[in-house]
Write a structure and sequence with these properties.
By secondary structure, the protein is an alpha/beta fold. It contains 10 helices and 10 strands. 34% of the residues lie in helices and 23% in strands. The two termini are 38 Å apart. Bound molecules: adenosine-5'-triphosphate (ATP). The site of adenosine-5'-triphosphate has 11 residues, from strand 2 and helix 1.
Amino acid sequence: MEAVAGERVEPREGHGNEYILVAERIVKRFGGLVAVDNATVKIRRKTITLLIGPNGSGKTTLLNVIAGYYRPDGGRVVFEGRDVTGLPPHRLYHLGMARTFQVPQPFPKLTVLENVLLAAKRHPGESFTAPLARGKWLPVEEELVDKAFSILRLVGLDHLWDHPAGQLSGGQMKLLEIARTLMSGAKLVLMDEPIAGVNPTLAHRILDFIVRLRDQGITFFIIEHRLDIAMKYVDYAYAMARGRVIAEGRPEEVVSNPLVIDSYLGG
Ligand SMILES: Nc1ncnc2c1ncn2[C@@H]1O[C@H](COP(=O)(O)OP(=O)(O)OP(=O)(O)O)[C@@H](O)[C@H]1O
């Protein structure tokens, strides 16, 4: 029997409470093209799980199905024990699943701190710019300011708190993007290439930061091509080819799997 979106799903074999997300037998077609073909991924709580595969293998499409951007043609997505298949991204965002680019783009003229504050979930009916317009913070907002500062300290941007976001470097923008995602209270963060186009030093800093957040209880599902840098930070890996999951396991096992190597060579 198909579950209805939002219904609590009885844990089946292997579901349990161990996984924050189970996407099972996902199918997504674009016309005649099967972009995701019966793919199943299970994301354990408080881990960093990597998704790899050659160009066009269906990684981004799978992430988009999980985050609610595409409705799958088959399969279901269970988040926190609840069937969320077909829920739109903003509903999932409120349930605690965020894709980094989903957070509104930074306002270049506002400060780093203001940009983090604006990513917090607001009370219904309150304009997100209200505190800025009033020019003062209410007590509940002071709590948010404290939270924003602790997140900024974590990403190492606290010393830039009063700088306009538009003055940040590309790498600092990525850190700001992660800070803003966290401010939303996300429990599961989905990221498409968090270290693309970033120099190796900053890439390691970003990944170190992601590890610290994992240790604080946040779960990450990440697509990344720069395996040389990312591998050692990752707990588990899935590999896709031609829409299918072809391997999963410890990252070093997955990248040395002959099927995975062949898929990169066009086999
Ligand atoms: N909106 C779309 N409309 C039609 N075809 C699409 C669409 N999005 C993706 N595809 C096709 O689906 C397949 C999977 O693409 P997808 O972007 O998910 O792969 P990927 O593994 O993320 O690739 P890359 O690493 O290059 O980002 C490709 O053949 C792609 O051309």
